[in-house]
Amino acid sequence: MTPEELSAAISACLKDAVAAGEFDVELPSEVRVERPRSREHGDWATNIALQLSKQAGMNPREFAQLLSGRLEQLDGVKTVAIAGPGFLNITLDAAAAGELARSIVDAGAGYGTSGLMAGTKINLEFVSANPTGPIHLGGTRWAAVGDALARLFQSQGAAVTREYYFNDHGAQVERFARSLWASAKGEPSPEDGYGGAYIDDIAARVLVLDPAILDLEQDDSVERFRELGVDLMFGDIKKSLHDFGVDFDVYFHEHSLFQDGFVEGLLEKLKTSGNLFLEDGAWWLRSTEFGDDKDRVVIKSDGAPAYIAGDIGYFVNKRRRGFDLNIIMLGADHHGYVARLKAAAAALGDDPDTVEVLIGQMVNLMKDGVPVRMSKRAGTVVTLEDLVDAVGVDAARYTLARFSADSNIDIDLDLLTRRTNDNPVFYVQYAHARTHAVERNAAAAGVDTSAFDASELSHPTEGELLAALGQFPGMVAQAAAFREPHRVARHIEVIAGTYHRWYDACRIAPLGDEPVTDLHRTRLWLNNATQQVLANGLGLLGVSAPERM
Q1: I need a surface site. Which of 65, 197, 280, 404 has the fewest CB within 10 A?
Q2: Which residues contact 499 (CB under 8 A, 6 or more apart)?
Q3: DSSP readout, 248-301?
Q4: What is the C-alpha to C-alpha distance for residues 160 and 122, in angstroms, rounded to an integer?
Q5: Cβ proximity of 291 and 322 under 8 Å
Q6: What is the reported pTM?
Q7: Going by C-beta distance under 8 Å and a sequence separation of 6 or more, which residues neighbour residue 91?
Q8: Left, alpha or beta for 330 (phi > 0: left; psi -120 to 50: alpha)?
Q9: How far apart are CA 141 and CA 509, in angstroms?
Q10: CA proximity to 525, closest of 462, 444, 431
Q11: How far apart are CA 70 and CA 52, in angstroms?
Q12: Do 167 and 173 touch, CB atoms closer than 8 A?
């Protein structure tokens, strides 16, 4: 019996009790069941009696007593105990608990998926690094977390568009172009320009593409460097991300928002709505009326649109493309964007909840306990390529997705290059590889999956492993709902540890001349179920699941 099946069975008991007049409550859409902190308290627990007893006008334990009587009649339920103020602790019989192994193998890659987000069209914008240099560690973190989040949403049935906002309209790009021009001329980078070996590299590549570029008038030459240099830099960024396992469905160019008067038209509409006001020659958004901490300049006193004007246009563009939810992943220095984007949506008469901003914190690279500045290309900034060169794609992606995005993290280079259980990604991948080794050894010993007897899975470590596997779908749904891919990493680490303990305690291949029995065959089902769940979890993080290590 899976947790979902148990939840549905409890819901059915509630419905029957209401129909029988035992109590009168509004039936919940779902009954949540959880793993008790102590295995001694049972296989699963629910606090549904505490949730509904007040509505029923009853004491929680009295409500729990009525419900437990019905639960005890369910096939597969061994005992139901009432604990504390009214918690229901449920123990399944071995056969019901063990049946989960076969269910997982039958479900395959679909185990952990659901339709909870079906019908939701999500635009997920992440990374969006300016095309003025390689992707740094912060952008690399968003690449890992953003792609994992997209995979989570898709696992729950959502239609997801991965989008990269290509900032090719602004002062930073102009400084980039002047830096390239100076490098090509053999001159120092402008005071406000960009440095690093990558500038010299891009400048040299531009000269190959257009050998006569320096013969142009300076303004024309700088503009040509901008055009070719941005294209080359962005090509490098795309390749870096692709090699990291991250590809985007849409590359949205910022300059397109300002074509054909699109943004200007929106601002004129806002003026007539009363949500803009004129002060000191500038037009301000009344964003404080919509929850922002201060009003924001939208049109500067010189008539030029402020940065937020592009944000407003971009939001409207996404909504016109039919997205129900627009999630934007930004760095730690963008906290102010949360309120202003929601305020802009509300000022436009739209639902501010269609905008969601996730803020990520800093990443530090450490070696021997000391911060590392090891970039070969960007001078003082550690890039995506630097991290991958040091630890590999799998270790980089897993580690960056393993922590809550709103926490600062220190990445220990020494740890991530070790092939030991101290290295989390190795620990999980090794567990997956071990399941394949067990499967190969079982086949060599004549053990197959031609029989399955769930009642054979009665060893304590088997109960623990089944419980961890059973929690996987609910955990995935929660990870998607809370936008927290790190929950997947932490849970498959629990599964890996539980599997290793089971492996040490329970044999699948018989010893010596010992005959093959249904116990061996059934344990092979459990091994293969673990293999599937580990592969599914690693897949959600965009990390490989090796069969041999």
Answers
A1: 280
A2: 431, 434, 435, 465, 530, 534
A3: -SEEEEGGGGGGGGHHHHHHHHHHHHT-EEEETTEEEE-GGGGT-SS-EEEE-T
A4: 5
A5: no
A6: 0.86
A7: 42, 43, 77, 78, 79, 80, 81
A8: beta
A9: 42
A10: 462
A11: 16
A12: yes
Return the bridge partners of 279, or none.
282
* pLDDT, tens only, 322-362: 999 999 998 877 776 778 888 888 888 889 899 998 988 88
Q: In whole angstroms, what is the distance from residue 155 CA to residue 53 CA?
A: 34
> Any idea how long the chain is?
549
Structure tokens at 548: 């041999």
List CB contacts of 89: < 8 A, sequence separation 6 or more.
36, 41, 42, 44, 45, 80, 81, 82, 83
pLDDT digits (tens, 9 = 90+) for 367-410: 877 777 645 455 556 788 888 988 899 999 999 999 998 888 88
Helix, strand, coil shares of the chain as percentages rounded to 5? 55, 15, 35
Show the tokens assigned to 181.
């021009």
Q: Cα dihedral sign for 460, 466, 472, 475?
A: negative
122: enclosing H helix or E strand: strand 121-125
Contact assessment for residue 145 and residue 360, using Cβ atoms and an 8 Å cutoff: yes
DSSP string, 383-411: BHHHHHHHH-HHHHHHHHHSS-TTS-EEE
